[in-house]
C-alpha cells in the first residue's frame, strides 16, 4: 500500500468517525444554538452569557456572584465582566451580602424583571426553531433522553 493510499484511508476513517461522533454532533448543535441565541438577543443588547446570568437571577434573585458563576459554568472573571455590563444596562444591581461582608449579592432590578418575558420568549422561539425538523414524538423523545446524558 502506498503512503498516499494509507493517508487517504486514514483520512476517510477519521472523517467517518468524526461525523458519527455524538460529541461532534452535540458540539455542532451547541455552536448553532449559541449563534441563534446570540442573534435573537442582539436587539436587546445582550449576549448568551448575559442571558444565562439573567435567567439564573430571574429564577433565584439575590444570590452571590460566585453562585451565579457556578450555576452558569462561567469563570469568575467572566462572571464579573458580564455582571458589570448588566449593571451598566440597569438590569441588575450589586449589594453587600447580609451576613458576609466579603460577599456581594446580585439582584434583578425592575427593569431586569420587565425583560423576563422577552427573554423567555426568545428561549422558546429558538428552541422551537431548533426542534422544528422533528415531529412531536421525536421532540418528546429528545427531551426525555437529553437529561439522561447530562
Describe the structure.
- This protein has seven helices and three strands, in the order H-H-H-E-H-H-E-E-H-H.
- It is mostly helical and 150 residues long.
- The protein has a domain at 46-149: Orthogonal Bundle (Arc Repressor Mutant, subunit A), CATH 1.10.10.10.
- Strands 1-3-2 form a three-stranded antiparallel β-sheet.
- Helix 2 packs across helix 6 (110-131).
- The longest helix is centred in the C-terminal third of the chain and has 22 residues, at 110-131.
- The protein is elongated and about 65 Å long.
Give keywords.
single chain, 150 residues, 70% helix, three-stranded antiparallel sheet, mainly alpha, Arc Repressor Mutant, subunit A
Explain briefly what this protein structure is.
The protein has 150 residues and is mainly alpha-helical. Helices cover 70% and strands 8% of the residues.
Secondary structure elements and pairings:
Blueprint: H1 3-19, H2 22-41, H3 48-59, E1 63-64, H4 65-71, H5 76-88, E2 92-96, E3 104-108, H6 110-131, H7 136-149
Antiparallel strand pairs: 1-3, 2-3
Helix pairs in contact: 2-6, 3-5, 3-6, 4-5
Give the class from helix and strand content and strand pairing.
Answer: mainly alpha
Q: What is the level-2 CATH architecture name of one domain?
A: Orthogonal Bundle
Query: Could you say which overall geometry the principal axes of the C-alpha atoms support?
Result: elongated
Strand order of the largest sheet: 1-3-2
The CATH class label of one domain is Mainly Alpha
Number-wise, the strands total 3
